[in-house]
Amino acid sequence: MQTNNFTYSFESTKSPETIFALLLDPKKWWVGFHEETIIGDSQKPNDVFSFKAGGGMHYTVQKLVEVIPNEKIVWLVTESNLSFLKETDEWDGTKIRFDLAPNGNKTKVTFTHDGFVPTFECYGACSSAWTDYMHQLKNTLR
């Protein structure tokens, strides 16, 4: 089944365990471009953290809703205020997800923003930002 959700995949020579530990802490990968501030935790189901970037122009709250150690991490966006958009809560109800899968002597990392589709006003700018974060993550995990 093909979807229009934003997806980015790459392979790493790091183990699923190493990658999972890094991804579980957004402060280690969702930073470095837009004066990001992350407050809260993301270690166990129901943990909540907020993400603020661009001087507060982008604000979201994420709840960790699914964790399969070394395989999958899913956060539900429970609140969003993207003040540069007409529909500021466009991300509400979307899910930010990482899937990890062994692939020979490498690990395939797949990032998906479920429900974040090309019809969203933010798709152009936000998918570009996601791509920047994923390129940075890929370089970190070389």
Question: Secondary-structure map with pairings?
Answer:
Elements: E1 6-12, H1 16-23, E2 37-40, E3 48-53, E4 58-68, E5 72-82, E6 95-103, E7 106-114, H2 123-140
Antiparallel strand pairs: 1-7, 2-3, 3-4, 4-5, 5-6, 6-7
Structural features, described:
The chain is an alpha+beta fold and 142 residues long. It has one domain: Alpha-D-Glucose-1,6-Bisphosphate, Chain A, domain 4 (2-Layer Sandwich), CATH 3.30.530. 18% of the residues lie in helices and 40% in strands. The protein is built from two helices and seven strands, in the order βαββββββα. It has helices at residues 16-23, 123-140; strands at residues 6-12, 37-40, 48-53, 58-68, 72-82, 95-103, 106-114. A seven-stranded antiparallel beta sheet has the order 1-7-6-5-4-3-2. Strand 3 (48-53) and strand 4 form a beta hairpin. The protein is globular and about 45 Å long. The termini are far apart. The mean pLDDT is 95.
Brief rundown of the structure:
The protein has 142 residues and is α+β, with helices and mostly antiparallel strands. 18% of the residues lie in helices and 40% in strands.
Q: Percent range for helical residues?
A: 10-25%
Question: What is the string of SSEs from the N terminus onward?
Answer: EHEEEEEEH
- What name does CATH use for the topology? Alpha-D-Glucose-1,6-Bisphosphate, Chain A, domain 4
Overall form: globular
Query: What is the number of helices?
Result: 2
Q: What kind of sheet is the major sheet? A: 7 strands, antiparallel
Count of discrete structural domains = 1
Tell me what portion of residues adopts beta-strand conformation.
35-45%
So, CATH architecture?
2-Layer Sandwich
CATH class membership: Alpha Beta
Order of strands side by side in the largest beta sheet?
A: 1-7-6-5-4-3-2
Mean pLDDT: 95
Distance between the termini: 30 Å
Structural class: alpha+beta
